[in-house]
Design goal:
Layout (H helix, E strand, L loop, with lengths): L14 E2 L1 H11 L6 E5 L12 E2 L9 E2 L3 E4 L10 E3 L1 E5 L14 E4 L11 E4 L4 E2 L5 E3 L9 E2 L10 E3 L7 H9 L4 E5 L3 E7 L3 E2 L10 E2 L2 H11 L3 E8 L3 H11 L5 E5 L10 H8 L1 E7 L1 E2 L3 E7 L2 E6 L3 H19 L10 E5 L3 E2 L5 E10 L5 E5 L8 H5 L3 E5 L5 E2 L4 E6 L5
Parallel strand pairs: 1-20, 7-8, 15-18, 15-19, 16-17, 19-23, 21-26, 24-27
Antiparallel strand pairs: 2-14, 3-13, 4-12, 5-8, 5-9, 6-11, 10-11, 20-22, 22-23, 24-30, 25-29, 26-27, 26-28, 28-30
Helix pairs in contact: 1-6, 3-6, 4-5
The protein binds adenosine monophosphate and magnesium ion.
The site of adenosine monophosphate (AMP) has 18 residues, from helix 3.
């Protein structure tokens, strides 16, 4: 399990900026070193445990980039057309082929090996065949044109994939191009998840009049799944410090991270703080982020705990900025900073300086072709529809106090967040 010292998150000041929190997580959370070997396809989304060196050059052999005619560059005329007899027909996958003799062209197809002696390929669209079946080549083609030399993509022995890379389909493709069937990846991060609140009922359960269905736990588990975590669903714990403490005690030591939602504000019925303090160390974070703000981070027997707020939008936004970097750090993943894309604000907005705000917004293409962010009309942190009916978050930095329509703002698409 991930062992952390009790004071590893100690910090000064009442409110921590988002950047400081992310920096602190990266500096304090130790990577899990355990790895496992998985079939190639299952490596998608996992974190690579070891560098992968190219066992062969890519492409493995020099080949044609087009359908056309392979020639020797000495035979290309500088100023006039050149007519060459066509010998041979080299298809992709051709096993054996003759060297190309001087003064000849070979019919060749995309991906087929360039015959010895040839070094340039004319595209079939650029030539014609005369009445004798000879190929008529235009003058002036650059020697080496339309040829893909062996190793031009990746030379043999070069590192193709780095340890710590979170694998995507394109990385899986590269490993397959190397002929690999399996990859060594960091084992899944084990996360125990529970919600807190007397007002919560699980979907499928009977719901009392003043209860609502627990949506956060399913959102958070779905987000953790995208990060390829192994999840233990601990359900809903009631709002009392004793049962929270015993619930936490049970799982600490059996997981790499405990994730809770709700009960982290400073209200009398917010018991996560007291529960953690009774069995571990709680470093209360009031993060300078809206929606969000109350976010707890603590250590129970060496296992980190993150307590997210109960309001669904706050829970979503703080997951992205606290849980995601923690899971990545536990996995030993290379840092993946979120990079907002510049778009044009189609709204006015006022905010306080000193905290980061995230505005739920939809994207629209304006008449001049520019991308515009349309703000969701309402602001409540409890509005699930505000997450469902938008495309992402406009990020407003700490120093910003006002946005006017037409101003450039940074936009994080939901698809880029996990
Ligand atoms: P809390 O952070 O516990 O004070 O909760 C803040 C608000 O979020 C309250 O209105 C809760 O009912 C709501 N809430 C808390 N936990 C959840 C949850 N798991 N799913 C949906 N709403 C929740
Ligand atoms: Mg609560």
């Amino acid at each position: 399990m991930a062992q952390l010292s009790d004071d590893c998150f100690a910090f000064g000041g009442p409110m921590m900026s988002v950047d400081n929190a992310v920096g602190l997580i990266a500096a304090s959370v130790n990577a899990i070193m355990d790895s496992e070997t998985v079939p190639l396809l299952d490596s998608d989304g996992r974190v690579l445990a070891r560098d992968v060196t190219a066992p062969l050059p890519l492409p493995p052999f020099t080949n044609s980039a087009v359908d056309g005619y392979a020639v020797r560059s000495e035979d290309i005329a500088k100023t006039a057309e050149q007519i060459l007899p066509v010998v041979g027909r080299i298809q992709a996958g051709a096993a054996a082929y003759e060297p190309l003799q001087a003064g000849h062209a070979a019919r060749i197809f995309t991906g087929a090996p360039i015959p010895p002696g040839a070094d340039t390929v004319f595209m079939q669209e650029d030539v014609r065949i005369d009445s004798f079946g000879k190929v008529v080549l235009p003058p002036g083609l650059r020697p080496g044109a339309n040829v893909r030399p062996a190793g031009e993509d990746i030379p043999q022995g070069k590192i193709g994939l780095r340890a710590g890379q979170r694998l995507s389909p394109q990385h899986v493709a590269l490993a397959a191009a190397f002929g690999l069937t399996h990859l060594k990846v960091v084992r899944r991060i084990r996360v125990a998840v529970f919600s807190t609140g007397n007002e919560l009922a699980s979907p499928g359960e009977a719901r009392a009049g003043a209860q609502l269905y627990d949506s956060n736990r399913f959102m958070l588990m779905a987000m953790l799944r995208r990060l390829r975590c192994e999840i233990t669903d601990l359900g809903i714990l009631r709002d009392d410090a004793m049962s929270l403490a015993s619930g936490l005690k049970k799982v600490a030591g059996e997981c790499d991270l405990i994730l809770t939602t709700g009960g982290v504000s400073t209200g009398e019925e917010d018991h996560v703080k007291a529960a953690v303090e009774s069995i571990g160390t709680l470093v209360m974070w009031r993060m300078a982020i809206k929606p969000g703000r109350p976010v707890a981070m603590g250590i129970i027997g060496g296992t980190p705990l993150i307590g997210l707020p109960g309001n669904p939008v706050a829970s979503f936004v703080t997951f992205v900025h606290v849980v995601r970097p923690t899971v990545l750090a536990l996995s030993g993943a290379l840092p993946e900073p979120l990079i907002p894309m510049p778009v044009r604000a189609a709204f006015a907005y006022k905010k306080k300086a000193g905290r980061r705000e995230y505005v739920r917004a939809s994207l629209r293409k304006a008449n001049d072709g520019a991308l515009e962010a349309i703000k969701f009309p309402r602001e409540g942190a409890g509005l699930l529809s505000s997450l469902v009916d938008t495309d992402g978050l406009v990020e407003l930095g700490e120093s910003i106090t006002q946005i006017e329509p037409g101003q450039s703002v940074g936009f994080l698409h939901y698809a880029s967040l996990l």
